[in-house]
What we know:
The structure holds two protein chains of two kinds.
Chain A: E1 6-15, E2 18-28, E3 33-37, H1 44-51, E4 59-64, E5 67-68, E6 71-74, E7 77-80, H2 83-91, E8 93-96, H3 108-120, H4 124-137, H5 153-165, E9 171-175, H6 186-198, E10 202-206, H7 210-216, E11 219-224, E12 227-232, H8 234-239, H9 244-253
Helix pairs in contact in A: 3-4, 3-5, 4-5, 5-6
Chain B: H1 23-45, H2 51-58, H3 61-92, H4 97-112, H5 115-123, E1 131-135, E2 142-147, H6 148-151, H7 154-179, H8 183-191, H9 196-226, H10 238-249, H11 252-280, H12 290-296
Antiparallel strand pairs in B: 1-2
Helix pairs in contact in B: 2-11, 3-4, 3-7, 3-9, 3-10, 4-7, 5-7, 7-9, 8-9, 9-11, 10-11
Amino acid sequence: xxxxxxxxxxxxxxxxxxxxLRGISLDVPEGGVVCVxxxxxxxxxxxxRCVNRLETIDSGRxxxxxxxxxxxxxxxxxxxxxxxxxxxxxxxxGMVFQxxxxxxxxxxxxxxxxxxxxxxxxxxxxxxxxxxxxxERVGLADRAGHYPAQLSGGQQQRVAIARSLAMDPKLMxxxxxxxALDPELVQExxxxxRDLAASGMTMMVVTHEMGFAREVGDNLVFIDGGxxxxxxxxxxxxxAPRHERFRAFLGxxx
Amino acid sequence: MTKISGAVEAPELxxxxxxxxxxxxxxxxxxxxxxxxxxxxxxxxxxxxxWDVIVAYLGDGRIMGGLWVTIQLTVLSMAIGLxxxxxxAVMQLSGSPVLRGAAALYTWFFRGTPxxxxxxxxxxxxxxxxxxxxxxxxxxxKLVEWQANELITPFTAALLGLAINEGAYMAExxxxxxxxxxxxxxEAAESLGMSHRQVLRRVVLPQAMRVIIxxxxxxxxxxxxxxxxxSVIAGAELLTVAQRIYxxxxxxxxLLIVASIWYIVLTTIASIAxxxxxxxxxxxxxxxxxxxxxxxxxxxxxxx
Lengths: 254, 304
């Protein structure tokens, strides 16, 4: 295998006068699961959104599977990617949002079919078969005909995961996937994510679920104030956090 | 209030309680009822209202022709207005300041001048541009050329005026609809790799429709009546036709009532249609909030 699936180098990002990312560098190997934790406003969600270019970056570089995200390097100058090329890059990067963002005017099945049919031009019948398989995989085959408003939060999030998987992504981004859920619905989503990790998917997960990070993560990254304060194997860093800020954070969430 | 003492039993009967008296409401209802009856009486016995004339002209061939022109003008100008409105709204939300500015100028100008003035202007456009042609701009050679006087009939002038004016109002309605869609929807669609056009067509516009449809229905109903303004340029729609008839037979009030009856019939039909169209676009949106639905879930049969 060549390089890592995701390479983030010296990434900086400002919102107006506020610098939310202040030089982040991070690698995710193929099949790796990195969990990103940190206090709210620390920049962890912004980092994730930069990887599929929902946000632009002000300096640094991000590569996914060897492709520079958002730009092409020609000679010694960077050129913005044309919209069509950007769409091409995003097809390989799945994203799951805190508030699901299922398409409310389409059923669960139609939500999962939407990407392949519209973006990749897959024939409807084939997309339908594959979508049903994916709904089966997240345990919702019997809810295929339901509209999002008729599903619980946990069910909606599982449909959202299936919708992303339908594009056969190389990388999955999870932006606080369980933060908007009632406590009793968190586990059904984590179970699906655990299975996904076990199947070898490369994942970047912004989360507050330390149990999940310890059990599934290969790397735990603690971000505070726009920089990586501490990282390492989840079991090790959780058992013996080195930095005071990380210890204080863990004291609040555990 | 009834106080109880000690343990008691409640009867297992449906409650059938007497309502408190509402003298104020009864008096107001009596007054309104009396006013209605009196109004109906004065209209029915009034000999200046020629009911026989009204009935005779209700199905008159010329009135029917005017009715048909009114329907055509309404449907065509709403269709063109909606198309113009969508284009202008998308331009207003675009990243290019030139496109945004052009769209803003359009809505500013056409909402800022009276429709009546615009209609008369379009009818007399030949005074400013005597000929229209297709060819090289800036006075270059022309492939085809038309005389404005042949091109601009009362009908085309009416259509231009109504549609372009309507487009300016529809632009605001469509823009409000697009802005009502959760930005997360756009992000979710973009993260699947959809292009801007796909995001708009597949995700944003269908959801914006829920917000766009009700005011558009109102605009349609309003347009049915606004077409009567075309009578100033003799547009051959319902009011123009009614005016032509009463200028001949002096039955002014009778023919105005004939026209009004047909306007009410049209707006009533349109209101009923609006109700069904709105239901169609409610798909996937349920009136029940999430908390209520969660409590109802045990009764959900989960058929798929």
